[in-house]
């Protein structure tokens, strides 16, 4: 049996999803468990083991040559550890070693979820055919990843492209990361909702104050809701323009729940980009909605693992065989 298949895990605060995939990123077999996010470290690992055990029961398993893991961050791909913000029991958890042992010593590749989403969009989604791209996930937080020179650029620890914590407002509000005026502090879903509420907008009775509710209000013409999205778009545009000026990306792909606002976000984002991306070599920069949806994390983890299984190991993607 040739090693033309890979296993993939997508680890988040609500679910642990797994799949077997071919080297093109097509998902063939799936398994999923809820994340026991409030449990101890071993109960979370137990859910990972359950997903891997279910995948290993597939008749396709003998063709698996590597395991790719995309995880909520922060991750440390060099150390093989993860510390997902929404899984408090995992701080510096040695996921690469533990998962590697669970899959009998197959090579394991770990990337952050933003980098995984980028790998998926580059292989099969909106960044396909672009050698230089930034992909963003705008939801509860703002994450991202980079493709440079046709290759995923994960960086030494797997976090390169984390645009949410670039400061675009020097004296702006404190961000939970400790800096001020981060893109995430201005553009994440909770911050879009908070800013609208601060400006006097209120959700309909019985409805929560979410970014989606603000988007609906903006579509109905509510000026405070429109202004909150315009401010988020401005922050994203400044961060994207800075990235383009540094790296000559020619497309920014935007996914995550906030991208579901559609033109409420994308129209002011395109306007703001023209204001910030002004030099000749960045004026062709475009933005596009992500195409991979909920499967982006799994597909991206599979694509990252396939690169290793094929022996095309890049310096940025560190694989470790478990002992
Ligand atoms: Zn920050």
Q: Could you spell the SSE succession in H and E letters?
A: EEEHEEEHEHEEEHHHHEHEHE
Give a short account of the largest sheet.
Answer: 6 strands, mixed
CATH hierarchy, class of the largest domain:
Alpha Beta
User: Do you know the CATH topology of the largest domain?
Assistant: Nucleotidyltransferase, domain 5
Number of strands: 13
Regions with little confidence, pLDDT below 50 for 5+ residues: 312-323
Number of helices: 9
The CATH homology group name of the largest domain? ATPase, nucleotide binding domain
Rg of Cα set: 20 Å
Helical content (DSSP H or I, runs of 4+): 25-40%
Cofactors, ions and other ligands in the entry: zinc ion
What class, by secondary structure content?
Answer: alpha/beta
Strand content: 15-25%
Shape type: globular
The CATH level-2 architecture of the largest domain is identified as 2-Layer Sandwich
Gap from first CA to last CA? 23 Å
Give the count of structural domains.
Answer: 2
The average pLDDT value, as a whole number, equals 93
Query: What oligomeric assembly is this protein in?
Result: single chain
Strand order of the largest sheet: 3-2-1-4-7-13
Molecular structure report:
With 323 residues, the chain is α/β, with parallel strands linked by helices. The chain is 35% helix and 21% strand. It has helices spanning 41-56, 95-102, 113-124, 183-187, 189-198, 211-219, 223-247, 263-276, 296-309; strands at residues 5-11, 15-22, 27-34, 64-71, 75-76, 81-82, 107-112, 133-138, 142-148, 151-153, 251-255, 286-289, 319-321. It has a six-stranded mixed β-sheet. Strands 10-9-8-11-12 form a five-stranded mixed β-sheet, sandwiched between helices. Strands 5-6 form a two-stranded antiparallel ribbon. A hairpin with a 4-residue loop joins strand 2 (15-22) and strand 3 (27-34). Helix 6 crosses helix 7 (223-247). It is globular, with a radius of gyration of 20 Å. The two termini are 23 Å apart. The model is unreliable at 312-323 (pLDDT under 50). The site of zinc ion has 6 residues, from loops.
């Amino acid at each position: 049996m040739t090693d033309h298949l890979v296993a993939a895990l997508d680890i988040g605060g609500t679910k642990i999803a797994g799949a077997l995939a071919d080297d093109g990123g097509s998902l063939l077999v799936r398994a999923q468990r809820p994340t026991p996010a409030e449990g101890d470290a071993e109960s979370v690992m137990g859910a990972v083991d359950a997903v891997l055990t279910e995948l290993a029961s597939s008749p396709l398993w003998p063709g698996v040559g590597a395991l790719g893991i995309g995880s909520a961050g922060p991750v440390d791909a060099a150390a093989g550890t993860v510390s997902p913000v929404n899984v408090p029991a995992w701080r510096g958890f040695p996921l690469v070693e533990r998962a590697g042992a669970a899959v009998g010593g197959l090579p394991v590749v770990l990337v952050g979820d933003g980098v995984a989403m980028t790998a998926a969009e580059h292989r099969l989604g909106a960044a396909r055919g672009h050698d230089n791209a930034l992909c963003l996930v705008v939801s509860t937080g703002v994450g991202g990843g980079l493709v440079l020179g046709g290759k995923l650029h994960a960086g030494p620890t797997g976090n390169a492209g984390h645009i949410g914590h670039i400061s675009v407002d020097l004296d702006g509000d404190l961000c939970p990361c400790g800096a001020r005026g981060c893109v995430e502090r201005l553009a994440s879903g909770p911050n879009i909702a908070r800013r609208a509420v601060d400006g006097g907008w209120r959700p309909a009775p019985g409805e929560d104050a979410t970014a989606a509710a603000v988007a609906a209000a903006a579509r109905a013409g509510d000026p405070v809701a429109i202004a909150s999205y315009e401010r988020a778009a401005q922050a994203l545009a400044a961060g994207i323009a800075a990235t383009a000026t540094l790296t000559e990306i020619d497309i920014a792909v935007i996914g995550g729940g906030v991208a579901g606002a559609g033109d409420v976000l994308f129209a002011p984002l395109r306007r703001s980009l023209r204001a910030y991306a002004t030099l000749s070599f960045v004026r062709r920069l475009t933005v596009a909605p992500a195409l991979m949806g909920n499967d982006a994390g799994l597909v991206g983890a599979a694509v990252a693992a396939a690169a290793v299984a094929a022996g095309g190991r890049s310096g940025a993607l560190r694989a470790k065989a478990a002992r």
